[in-house]
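Sample intake sheet
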Amino acid sequence: MYAVIVTGGKQYKVSEGDTIKVEKLDGNVGDEVTFDVVMLVNGEKVLAGKECKAKAHAKITSHGKGDKIVVFKYKAKKNERKRQGHRQPFTAVEIISIK
């Protein structure tokens, strides 16, 4: 059985016991969070949209920052250059149950 959940404007395919990195959530390590389920697949039965009333329960395992990306902007023939780095914050969660 797996489900598609929504958080931070993105969708993730999860099963029980999975650990995923999502956009940063408020909460401390060990807190439980609940995600809305958009689609639920159980064997050959598929529930989606309004008929899917399931929730995914997860536990926050850690917070952190992702890998650094380099943002480089320039204007040709003008000797204008700008270099920046960015590290996106994330929250790692472990899916406990899908009900």
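Comment: Residues 20 and 58 are 10 Å apart (CA to CA). Strands lie at 2-7, 10-14, 19-23, 32-42, 45-48, 55-65, 69-75, 80-86, 89-98.
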